[in-house]
Design a protein that fits this description.
Blueprint lengths: L6 H6 L1 H16 L1 E2 L9 H7 L10 E2 L2 E2 L7 H16 L3 E3 L5 H12 L5 E5 L15 H4 L2 E5 L10 H11 L3 E4 L10 H11 L2 E5 L4 H5 L12 E5 L10 E5 L4 H12 L5 H14 L2 H23 L3 E2 L8 E5 L7 H10 L2 E2 L1 E3 L13 E5 L1 H6 L3 H20 L2 H15 L9
Parallel strand pairs: 1-13, 5-6, 5-7, 7-8, 8-9
Antiparallel strand pairs: 2-3, 4-10, 9-10, 11-12, 12-15, 14-15
Helix pairs in contact: 3-11, 4-11, 5-10, 7-8, 12-15, 13-15, 15-16
The structure holds D-serine.
């Protein structure tokens, strides 16, 4: 059952309580490979379920628009101080509701509508809010996008520099949602400096790896850094903006009153708890284990003939182009889900297929590493993925069912925070 127990919820609203229990069981029984997800600790779960949700706190510590902030101010200050210590930054704003509002605050702080922003194209691995055309950031600002090279699947900084020199963006984004390789922050910083742009690093996917020393940090290269708190960082659903002191005021103003009202204080407390966890030596072990698992999984997939974008991974994320397997991403993802392996279908660079029916799969090892699976199990996971793809191609539903049972058996040996 769900941990912490939800007995009052079950008594008051059995329908919702039943669904919560179902979701906890589902998370327990699945190999969860969605690259942006994780399992938070029960301490983080408890913090999100506290009376802090009852309180309005527009403003910042010591300068609020409502009374009764005797407790909220120290909660927010703790989260800020821990963020500054974990990432080694001069300023942290822990109020953004999630990654997209955090990124929008960067626009509000540094750009006027119609001015130029440059980011990685969504189909190449960027994020909607880095100026993609269906997002407000692509509609309200003049957006130019860099991609990846066809031969390497990786960003070519010479191309980024040429584009930046031609387009003169005021803000350059680096980072994204489907990048399996290390980001060259000094390289991006040199380009931003040359064209007089603010470099904004979106580290949402890799924040936990950076906190744990398993990926280079953008600090000292990007004066503005945004991140969600719930991916490899393993906190509640929320976000932060980290920056140097020079940009603190503009960013704080952009978050409140520019974009948001009252911060979600229960989330702020849970962010503080997660940052406390991330400051411990065990978290560094965890971050390195995420990368080791991703590398082991990538290697085992390549051995089974899977075509990985960039040929492998440096971080938690793997992007598979399934074209050579004779199946598209969506049917493969759905078959894998039935087999107990949860991931998402994803475009690959230069994908000839549409985004809602693309050629690829995106996988990440943040959650399964929290669960305690190691590199030995990654070989088995690759084998299961291969078997499921073949079973789906052959219409062999019995094989998919058999694998779901094997996965439930394996996961029975690995406890899940949030379920007992
Ligand atoms: N939805 C997130 C992801 O899955 O990468 C990005 O916003």
């Amino acid at each position: 059952m769900h941990q912490p127990a939800i007995t009052d919820l079950a008594a008051a609203d059995p329908e919702i309580a039943g669904l919560v229990e179902q979701e906890a069981k589902r998370q327990y029984e699945k190999i969860r490979l969605i690259a942006s997800e994780n399992y938070v600790s029960t301490a983080v779960l408890e913090a999100t379920g506290t009376v802090l949700t009852n309180k309005y706190s527009e403003g910042y510590a010591g300068k609020r628009y409502y009374e009764g902030q005797q407790v909220i101010d120290p909660v927010e200050n703790l989260a800020i101080e821990r963020a500054k210590a974990v990432f080694g930054v001069e300023h942290a704003n822990v109020q953004p509701y999630s990654g997209s509002p955090a990124n929008l605050a960067v626009y509000l702080a540094f750009l006027q509508p119609g001015e130029t922003v440059m980011g990685m194209a969504l189909p190449a691995g960027g994020h909607l809010t880095h100026g993609w055309n269906v997002s407000a950031t692509g509609k309200w600002f003049r957006s130019v996008a860099y991609g990846v090279r066809k031969d390497t699947g990786q960003v070519d900084l010479d191309e980024v520099r040429d584009l930046a020199l031609a387009e003169r963006p005021k803000v350059i984004w680096c980072g994204g949602t489907a990048i399996p390789r290390t980001i060259d922050y000094p390289g991006f910083a040199a380009i931003a400096q040359e064209v007089g742009a603010v470099l904004a690093a979106d580290i949402a996917h890799i924040a936990g790896l950076i906190a744990g020393g398993a990926h280079p940090s953008p600090v000292g290269h990007a004066p503005v850094i945004t991140t969600t708190t719930h991916k490899t960082l393993r906190g509640p659903r929320g976000a932060m903006i980290l920056s140097d002191a020079e940009h603190a005021k503009a960013l704080d103003r952009a978050v409140f009153p520019g974009l948001q009202g009252g911060p979600h204080n229960h989330t702020t407390a849970a962010i503080a708890v997660a940052l406390g966890e991330a400051s411990k030596p065990e978290f560094s072990t965890y971050a390195h284990a995420i990368v080791a698992n991703a590398k082991a999984l990538a290697e085992a997939l390549v051995e089974r003939g899977f075509d990985l974008v960039t040929g492998g991974t440096d971080n938690h994320l793997i992007l598979i182009d399934l074209t050579n397997k004779g199946i598209a991403g969506k049917p493969a993802a759905k078959a894998l889900d039935r087999a107990g392996i949860e991931l998402n279908y994803n475009s690959v660079p230069f994908d000839p297929r549409k985004p809602f029916d693309p050629s690829g799969l995106r996988l990440g090892t943040g959650a399964i590493t929290t669960r305690g699976l190691g590199t030995d199990q990654m070989v088995k996971v690759a084998e299961w993925i291969d078997q499921v793809v073949q079973a789906e191609n052959n219409g062999d539903e019995a094989a998919i069912e058999r694998i779901a049972g094997e996965i439930r058996d394996l996961l029975g040996n690995y406890p899940m925070p949030g379920w007992r």
